[in-house]
Each structure stands twice: as structure tokens, then as C-alpha cells.
Amino acid sequence: MLTALSIMLGLAIALGLLLGYAALKFKVDGDPLIAKIDAILPQTQCGQCGYPGCKPYATAIAHGEADINQCPPGGDAGVRALADLLGVEYKPLNGEPKPKSVAFIDENTCIGCTLCIQACPVDAILGAAKHMHTIISSECTGCELCVAPCPVDCISMTPVAETPENWKWKYPTIPIVPVAHQG
Known about the structure:
Elements: H1 2-25, H2 32-40, H3 54-62, H4 75-86, E1 101-105, H5 115-119, E2 125-126, E3 134-135, E4 155-159
Antiparallel strand pairs: 1-4, 2-3
């Protein structure tokens, strides 16, 4: 009786250790630290930090592979928020902060080459081959990735005035939960 209990206990411990090792070794997306860092980043997916998007940059920061000050669209406020979250010393932004902007296509110049559509990481450009294209401004993150591939230079970046609707693009979002008033 005692040996059967010992064997079961030994198997349970071995299985627990194996599962614990697997959880550490094969960690999947869903790391809460990566999610918190990603929530602070502006979601422009611009690659100006040296990573192909905000989530890969967040992952690199979480793993200690990237500095917190590499995101121009996030600006100084983003660097400060990351420093606060991670409990590390603030470092000045590496580069110049960029204002919230959206792409604008000069429809009279556009030749419909589709190179901008292919470059857009968020599908904010509407158009078809050999037809004029346009920007869906509510979807545009201002990443500027569409500007360089344009062979006729018909795309420019237009600064957007900060409003209550778009302020969160620049700053970390804090969920606001309505509170029912008791009368």
C-alpha cells in the first residue's frame, strides 16, 4: 500500500516538473508583460524601432533584447510609460518624436500602381490596379511605409490635430469603467 502511494506521488511530482519545464521552455503568446508593453506602444506597425511591428518590439523589450526608447511615434510619453511599467530608468527617446499623422494621396497624381497598398501593414489604402487610390484615414496609423514605394511621390503625411477621439494613439490607454451613480 505504501509503495503504490509512493509510486503515484513520484509520478505526480515527475509530471508536475515536466509540465513546469514545458511551460517555461515553450512559452506561448499570452505573456502578460508583453501584452502590457504592447498596450503602451502606439500600434503604428511602422518598424521605426527596428522591429517589424509593435508586438515584436514589445516582445524584444520584455526579453531584454531592445531598449525602451526606440519608438518615435510613441514619443517621450511612451518611453516614460515603459520605464514606469518595467521599473527601469527613463532614457530619452532615440530620435525625434513624431506627431500623429495620416497619409494623403494626391488623387490627380496617383497612377494606381498598388505599391502603397502592398506596403501598408494595416490595410488602410483602398484602390485597384491602374485606378486612383485613397486612404481610409480612420484606419491609417501614420507609419509612413506607403510613402517610399510610391514612384510618383503622390503620398504625403498630414498631421492630425489631437482630439478626444484620437488622443489614445499617442498615450497608453487606461480603461475607463462607468460607475453607476446611486441616487
